[in-house]
Amino acid sequence: MDSAQPLYLQLAERIGALVRTGALKRGDRLTSVREMARQQSVSTSTVLQAYRHLEDARLIEARPKSGYFVAATRASRAPVPEPDLTQPPIDSNSVDVSWMAERVFAAATDPGYISFGAACPSGELFQLDRLHRAVTRAAQRHRASLGRYPFAPGIEPLREAVARRALGMGCQLDPRNLLITNGCLESISLCLRAVTQPGDIVALESPTYFGFLQILESLHLRALEIPTHPRTGLSIPALEFALDTQPVKAVLAVPTLSNPIGATMPLAERRQLARLMSQRGIPLIEDVLYNDLHGREGRRAVKSFDTEGHVMICGSFSKTVAPGIRLGWVEAGRWTAQVRRLKAALAGGHTELIELAMAEVLSTPGYEPMLRQLRTTIDARVEEARRLVGESFPAGTRVTDPAGGFILWAELPPEVSSVELFQACLRERICIAPGPLFTATPRYRNCVRLGLGGAWGDVQKDALRRVGAIAQAMLKSARRSVECAA
Amino acid sequence: MDSAQPLYLQLAERIGALVRTGALKRGDRLTSVREMARQQSVSTSTVLQAYRHLEDARLIEARPKSGYFVAATRASRAPVPEPDLTQPPIDSNSVDVSWMAERVFAAATDPGYISFGAACPSGELFQLDRLHRAVTRAAQRHRASLGRYPFAPGIEPLREAVARRALGMGCQLDPRNLLITNGCLESISLCLRAVTQPGDIVALESPTYFGFLQILESLHLRALEIPTHPRTGLSIPALEFALDTQPVKAVLAVPTLSNPIGATMPLAERRQLARLMSQRGIPLIEDVLYNDLHGREGRRAVKSFDTEGHVMICGSFSKTVAPGIRLGWVEAGRWTAQVRRLKAALAGGHTELIELAMAEVLSTPGYEPMLRQLRTTIDARVEEARRLVGESFPAGTRVTDPAGGFILWAELPPEVSSVELFQACLRERICIAPGPLFTATPRYRNCVRLGLGGAWGDVQKDALRRVGAIAQAMLKSARRSVECAA
Question: Is A105 close to B151, i.e. CB distance below 8 A?
Fold first, then answer.
């Protein structure tokens, strides 16, 4: 052991070794912080630092009011195979997914349905009291803001708070270059408007978030889908090939916990991607919506490797602070002036009161522990859902094993049509999102996205098993009709 | 007198006759409501109704805690001549006003300047307490909304409240067809996106709000400016000629209290305009931002004459409830589905808490009296400003006499460059908006817009006189150099 290491790291390594050798097993409770400090003759804050380090490394997890426990390790995670690198066709496509998205949304927001359709986390996952207090306080202290016409780029305290939070992603953003928006979608649509004209080609992950496809559709842009690995994300060689062969005007990506396949690009690839963008003079529109849900290196943004302003970084608070506050932000690198001008012209500023409340929440201590708690809760839930998929979906089903977030992507046997599965599930008041929603190509017909951000209890677990049973029945019937035809 | 008339109308007519014959003069205090009821042997509510009727007709005005007074009549208004029908060139133009708009905005929002540059009303004109209470209550009662992801088209109670308020404009809007937006600008940009492609021509008033020109610039649309009369607004014959001769894809207009010239289109022209749009199958994007600031028939929207869904009506609350709440709405007639789809794709929903608070404010009694009070306050202020312009600006200056709102448009002698005047005023920390900002043509070089929605006291009055003095000096020097050259 390297005695030059800080004390807390030395302690963390000792405990980590116990976990790895099996001396401490999944679910074992760790010695309390106070007791451990006494045993090791270190301060309690050193022990806390060590435990947090192990938590970030996902070796242990905190449970509220109970203490620290050994977490499920990769090896102990449900042994369901993961999908391979995706292989979309190599031509760009015009987009037409809105009709399907509207049907999924209608069911996803109808309380009569058990919804795995939307990727929206539900309120119970967040500390809404803190935000509620901030709103009430802002209304009291900043009553005059109700009488002030709000302008872009948004209030300085919020832009400063965003800049401080961005340090956690390795980014030094100048608050003067930040623009507050009506959520990440608006950030992205402003960036796309600033750097493209109708008919232009935009490269993005495949599969991709259908909201991105809807933006492209609305702006009359063409989608060029790039092969994407469920662990490591956008394939850089494939992207390079695309840039070599097609007039791509922008790249739109979610390098951390991409939606729907949950990929997180390794740091080396992030560096490569930033360099590639600079070399080609093409903007990367980087969506960091989920970065704070990644406890480790995946939190670092591609923007942190961007030296020449070719990365336009877009974020929001709806996945990490509260879904009900509709605010986002963007730092558009060398396109900052254009993006700001578009925002001012097309939509104006935002209700300052809400900006003030958000600035307060982001600036008070407790944000990091809240994130930690959120990660632990959703990790456990997603792991449980993976197990259920492994048990109840047809043999041969593959499912992603994301390093965070609340989304799973399952690839069923090719005979199962996910659109038919979607429709059959709707009849039983269960909503899932079918694969074709996430592409402008004819792929992913046998894939589904499962959003696990909503309520999670026995009803939902039974519903997930039921999705599996319906898929089993569909597969059986599909194979029978093939036999009959033969 | 027609005895079939309601009692309050009979009483109102009797009092009106006294004002018109001069028996009651400007500034005279009316008999108190209680005393008048006793004298006339009617109920106090009948007297109140009569007084409100006279207030709407601008014959009398209420002063808080003092009673009712005879208002300035047209005849007693400052005898400053008004500008003529505008005569923009007949070709469409690409737009490039953003740079000037940014300079005006920067000064308009800097507290170091005395600002007549922006057309934003200041908080002191509104009953912010009511709104503040509504926000606090919404935060208490609807805490769960912070945990709910908000979607377009916005919450039902707000859409219902907007539909109820639209009755005052003569419109029966179905809440299901209403879409809540991030303010009127966003409503208008969504409408334009739904009905145009880059390069298309949009017809609008001349001069027009520079925000509209910025939207057109951002969407790469061409502006075709239509002659507009400072009293009666958009010239319908000129518009018809434009539609006959050019491929106009949409008409964008502010039929009530247009910005900057404060015109209000008479009802007959409104009916004609609605019919024209239906005949040609072209959409009118109608901005009703100021309709509630017009006490009389100008409140009625063109949309109320639209039988076939060719009017897309756009409104907001920033001029009538509170500048600091950034919310607007749109009912897009036959383009409702397209506009909603664009909104969902490009920007999403809004913070529900604010929508809830706004729905409450719009639904409680007191909104109408508040509007009445607001109108009285700004009418008096605008009349005072007109007088000051008449006294201090160069001889030959014409100024509009709008039927409401807080904007004046002054046409100075042709030798005065309003851009130079703007720059000279800036050096003395006074901000005005130069005429060229309100057009994509080379017109209005000798015009300025004066926004009177900000603070209004001796400092502002002196500053307005100072603008006049600077203009006088500029004119003198211009004439002197002409003499020298001769």
Answer: yes
